[in-house]
Design brief:
By secondary structure, the chain is an all-beta fold. The chain has no helices and five strands. The protein has one domain. It is flat and about 30 Å long. The chain binds FE2/S2 (inorganic) cluster. The site of FE2/S2 (inorganic) cluster has 12 residues, from loops.
Length: about 60
Protein backbone atom coordinates (compact mmCIF):
# COMPACT_ATOMS: atom_id res chain seq x y z
CA UNK A 1 0.00 0.00 0.00
CA UNK A 2 1.24 3.51 -0.88
CA UNK A 3 1.72 5.19 2.52
CA UNK A 4 1.34 8.65 1.00
CA UNK A 5 -1.93 7.90 -0.73
CA UNK A 6 -4.99 9.71 0.65
CA UNK A 7 -7.08 7.17 2.52
CA UNK A 8 -10.26 6.81 4.56
CA UNK A 9 -10.12 3.83 6.89
CA UNK A 10 -12.83 2.42 9.13
CA UNK A 11 -11.00 0.92 12.09
CA UNK A 12 -11.99 -2.15 14.07
CA UNK A 13 -13.41 0.13 16.78
CA UNK A 14 -15.54 2.03 14.26
CA UNK A 15 -13.47 5.19 14.10
CA UNK A 16 -13.27 6.72 10.61
CA UNK A 17 -9.74 7.98 9.94
CA UNK A 18 -8.90 10.26 7.02
CA UNK A 19 -5.15 10.52 6.35
CA UNK A 20 -2.73 11.94 3.81
CA UNK A 21 -5.23 14.32 2.33
CA UNK A 22 -3.64 17.63 1.35
CA UNK A 23 -6.64 19.60 2.57
CA UNK A 24 -10.02 18.16 3.41
CA UNK A 25 -12.80 20.45 4.51
CA UNK A 26 -15.39 18.90 6.77
CA UNK A 27 -18.80 20.53 6.35
CA UNK A 28 -21.89 20.45 8.53
CA UNK A 29 -25.38 19.76 7.21
CA UNK A 30 -25.75 23.41 6.19
CA UNK A 31 -22.47 23.47 4.29
CA UNK A 32 -20.60 25.48 6.92
CA UNK A 33 -16.98 24.59 7.51
CA UNK A 34 -16.31 22.63 10.70
CA UNK A 35 -12.60 22.20 10.08
CA UNK A 36 -10.01 21.96 7.33
CA UNK A 37 -7.19 19.52 7.99
CA UNK A 38 -5.08 16.86 6.37
CA UNK A 39 -6.12 14.27 8.97
CA UNK A 40 -9.42 13.54 10.70
CA UNK A 41 -10.61 10.89 13.14
CA UNK A 42 -14.38 10.87 12.97
CA UNK A 43 -16.75 9.11 15.35
CA UNK A 44 -19.12 6.48 14.03
CA UNK A 45 -20.00 4.89 17.38
CA UNK A 46 -22.10 7.79 18.70
CA UNK A 47 -20.34 7.94 22.09
CA UNK A 48 -18.12 10.97 21.49
CA UNK A 49 -18.65 14.21 23.38
CA UNK A 50 -16.76 16.06 20.62
CA UNK A 51 -18.92 15.24 17.58
CA UNK A 52 -18.18 14.70 14.78
CA UNK A 53 -14.68 13.85 15.98
CA UNK A 54 -13.62 10.69 17.77
CA UNK A 55 -12.60 11.45 21.36
CA UNK A 56 -11.69 7.89 22.30
CA UNK A 57 -15.04 7.18 24.01
CA UNK A 58 -15.51 4.11 21.78
CA UNK A 59 -13.00 2.36 24.06
CA UNK A 60 -15.36 2.54 27.05
S1 LIG B 1 -15.53 6.13 17.21
FE1 LIG B 1 -14.23 6.94 18.74
S2 LIG B 1 -15.59 7.96 20.08
FE2 LIG B 1 -16.87 7.12 18.59
Amino acid sequence: MDNNKPTIQITATGKVVVTNAKQVTLLDAEGKTIATRNRFSLCSCGKTLDAPFCDGAHKN
